[in-house]
Amino acid sequence: MGKTLMIDKKLLRKIPIFLLVFLLVFSASSLFSQESAPKTFRNPLNPYGGADPWLQYYEGNYYLATTTGRSELIMSKSPTLAGLKTAVPVQIYAETDPSRCCNMWAPEFHLLEGPNGLRWYYYYSAGTSGTLDNQHTHVLESAGTDPMGPYTYKARIFDPSNDVWAIDGSILKIEDMLYFLFSSWVGNKQNLFIAPMSDPWTLSGSRVLLAEPEYDWEMSGANVTEGPVALYHDDQIFIIYSASYCVTPDYKLGMLTYNGGDPLQRSSWEKHPEPVFQRSDENGVFGPGHNGFFMSPDGTEYWIVYHANDDDSGGCDDRRTTRVQKFSWNDDGTPNFGIPVSREAEIAAPSGDDGVDPVPEFDKLEISRFRSMSYSEGYLRHTDVYVRVDNGVTPVADSQFYVLPGLADPEAISIRAVNLPGYFLRHEGSAIIFAPSDGSEQFAADATWWVRPGLADSEWISLEAYNQPGFFIGQMFGTTALVELTDAMSDRMREDATFLEER
Ligand code: AHR
Q: Would strands 386-391 and 378-383 be described as parallel, antiparallel, or unpaired?
């Protein structure tokens, strides 16, 4: 992918060694012929923001969605599983309705035959701003059969006789019947419920209790069963769910087995008394849960996708990252998920996937900060999507970035926000903002920057717009903006456009 940056020699030493190594890795990996390339990759599939993942392989591409916690839903697409590591998440929906604007969690997209034909139904949890007390389950409908959309808002899915807090909606299909699975509080227990559906966005009957926390392993930190997901194998049907509080390293997976009765009867589902997938301190994987399932491209292998933390203090936030691994089946037909694999494990690519891991050393991606010459402790930072220079940035993560090969030209750079997964620094007119890629060439050009000698000090750097030569990231009227380099530029303006990259 990338070659070394084409900047004059004096500056080569300015480019962090890690970036040159990174570019060389990209160059090297692109030199591998598919035949000679090792068809392995390592977890995780993202460095940040990989919670509650949902991953499907469809018509030649893998599609991945994860919890954003914001007012938008995203989707990444790649022809190879490992390629999801560098695929840029694309915003597929943003919400402004205050009743469902915010805290978007637990995305799942299901291809279902509905009243409008075959469509993708993108289920998610969302609520109101500033609180998690109003979370409910919602669904979008795609315009056609492209998982990337476009999507339109379809409905809030709820049981009118129990219109309460509900999250983690998922779909169960038995014969031609659709059922909605979700999690909701009753007293001090977060329970699993099932309800019949008349179409992919409407319940046709009241909810029925499916399972509740009862074993100690379901009650670490809080009494929680959530994230239900159906698993089908031969003539057997399972519901795999997450148990215990997502903040704890003891978040784990449990299993219900369908015994063939009325799916809307709790007695038709037998809970396995032990967890079926849980932390591995030896492998450095903690709180594995909120999973999904997908098949290999050739349909012969079953894979599980889940999130986990790298240490036992990881918590239930954007530090959760997306992991995948193949699983097998026991003699009694139940799934054998094994043990969550370590980040060092080389995982063979799925059968029918000839991908090469573009970022084998994912966790070696350094984090950069850009210190402004014109402030004593001023750093470039985002606040929401707006960019400015602040002294003493909190949270520090707002001033932390990944410097990657330029989207428009790998000899330049693009700058990705660590805590806004998939958001790149771009100019829009003279404004400098962070935005998610829409996949267009215009976006790529607007989000690509040349590294130049600092306008105020050649030992530092300045960032010139790839598609607007002579225009640099600087300050205008106290706001971070694209400023033109002219002879009239004051020393202060030059300092405002000069940065020191710190790692
Ligand atoms: O990650 C956000 C929410 O946290 C998920 O929807 C839920 O499974 C967990 O409680």
A: antiparallel
Strand order in the sheet with 302-309: 286-295, 302-309, 321-329, 335-336
For residue 106, the ligand 1 atom closest to its alpha carbon is 6
Of how many residues is the chain composed?
503
Taken in order 161, 163, 168, 170, the sign of the CA dihedral is: positive
Quick one: DSSP state of residue 368? B
- Active-site annotation holder among 226, 318, 411, 464: 226
Q: How many angstroms separate the alpha carbon of residue 361 from the centre of ligand 1?
A: 28
Pairing between β-strand 223-233 and β-strand 189-199 as defined by DSSP bridges: parallel
Condensed to tens digits (0 to 9), the pLDDT of residues 399-454 reads: 989 898 899 998 999 998 887 767 899 999 899 999 988 878 999 999 999 999 99
Distance (Å) from CA 346 to ligand 1 centroid:
29
Query: Any idea which residue has 């003539």 for tokens?
Result: 235
Q: Which residues pair with 93 in a beta bridge?
A: 73
What are 44-92's pLDDT values in tens digits? 998 878 999 999 999 999 999 999 888 889 999 999 999 898 787 888 9
Q: Is 8 a catalytic residue?
A: no
The amino acid occupying position 498 is T
The first and second tokens of residue 69, run together, are 């916690």
192: Cβ below 6 Å to ligand 1? no
Ligand 1 mean position, distance from CA 71 (Å): 15
Sole residue written with tokens 């369908």: 258
3-state SS, one letter per residue, for 400-422:
CEEEEECCCCCCCEEEEECCCCC
